[in-house]
Design brief:
Length: 161
């Protein structure tokens, strides 16, 4: 399974880096055009907004698979002992439930966006496809949260005094 997932993760990560580069380049060109020639790039805000959403939500399953969500490690010394495994599974289920709720809400937003013909401001890009993408990647992250490896304690060597 890891033979399949690792290349897929690398592919998605490379795509995310390229999209981030495109967003930075577009913003740079837009600012130059605005400041030097008084001509901004038409639709730059729309493109940047969509790229940002794609970057965030395409990375969500990757982040979840690597336990990269924000966490506080203040009590890791105690919580990462074998006796707390059930607690960690409960937290994983809670994370999956929250991500599933996000997916469900965006799934419902797809139909509403189609009905009211919700589009971006300048380029008139339909929003429903973005909501579908967010729903899909959030659902994928929710499933990933259920199968993520349990946290392992980090071993820190103490420095001699």
């Amino acid at each position: 399974m890891n033979r399949v997932l690792h290349p897929l993760q690398r592919l998605v990560s490379t795509g995310l880096v390229l999209m981030l580069f495109a967003m930075v380049a577009l913003t740079f060109v837009d600012v130059l055009g605005r400041r030097l020639f008084n001509t901004p790039v038409f639709g730059a805000n729309d493109i940047t907004e969509h790229l940002m959403a794609v970057i965030i939500f395409a990375g969500l399953p990757l982040l979840t698979s690597q336990r990269g969500h924000l966490s506080i490690d203040l009590f890791d010394k105690w919580l990462l002992t074998p006796g707390w495994r059930l607690w960690h599974r409960a937290v994983d289920v809670l994370i999956a439930a929250v991500l599933a709720l996000i997916a469900f809400e965006y799934y419902q937003a797809i139909d509403e966006a189609r009905q009211i013909n919700e589009v971006s401001q300048a380029l008139l890009i339909p929003r429903y496809w973005m909501y579908g993408f967010i729903a899909f990647t959030s659902a994928l992250a929710a499933v990933t949260a259920l199968f993520v490896e349990p946290p392992q304690p980090e071993h820190h060597e103490e420095m001699p005094s």
